[in-house]
Write a structure and sequence with these properties.
Strand order of the largest sheet: 3-2-1-4-5
CATH architecture: 3-Layer(aba) Sandwich
Strand content: 5-15%
Number of helices: 7
Mean pLDDT: 96
Number of strands: 5
CATH superfamily: HUPs
CATH topology: Rossmann fold
Radius of gyration: 17 Å
Order of helices and strands: EHEHEHHEHEHH
Structural class: alpha/beta
Low-confidence stretches: none
Shape: globular
Helix content: 25-40%
Number of domains: 1
Largest sheet: 5 strands, parallel
CATH class: Alpha Beta
Length: 226
Amino acid sequence: MTSVVLLSGGMDSTLTAAIACAESDTVAAVHFNYRHRTERRELAAFQAICDKLGITKRLVVDAEVLRQIGGSSLTDEAIPVSKADLAATDIPSSYVPFRNGTFLSIATGWAEVLGAERIYIGAVEEDSSGYPDCRKVFFDEFEKAINLGTKPETHIRIITPVIAMKKSEIVKKSLELGVPLELTWSCYQSEDEACGECDSCALRLRGFELAGATDPLSYAKRPRYA
């Protein structure tokens, strides 16, 4: 069985890639460059993780259109990256409009060409930033759209193995499976040293704290969020 995995280089997608490798005969990894703040660092993480997991079939997609569309602090330098507020219920400035829908559409085209039966994506619903395109219901409905819009003989499932996990559970599972967390990158703001203050850094740091583990990354600031 061939699977396609969306691999950003973060913890969630890296654990997902490891699970895909364990459950598939062949795994192909797709990564998206969309001129976001940490594009170079995430691409380096993607390549290093693929090397570590033995994924040789890779596709790096230029998705600059997401920067042109704008509307996110990740792609528009004029919009500041919000400080972490893990109790907030509003969708943060880091939300990239319909990013997962865009990524899944491209991944679907590649999966159909490869004859893949599964697309793995490392979305997390409960312990995430509240992005609307990270919900299980979204992926269930998108899977229906995929199978309506591809050839009759194409049957693709969207697999979301970490969708119901908390970040602490992702850390624990990653350590259990030997996932190379030291190669991953989560910071929304910096490419050299994680800021420790953006939403993604906060979720990651809290995950490690609650898991009773030490995050191997270097941080400019390392607040306690647990």
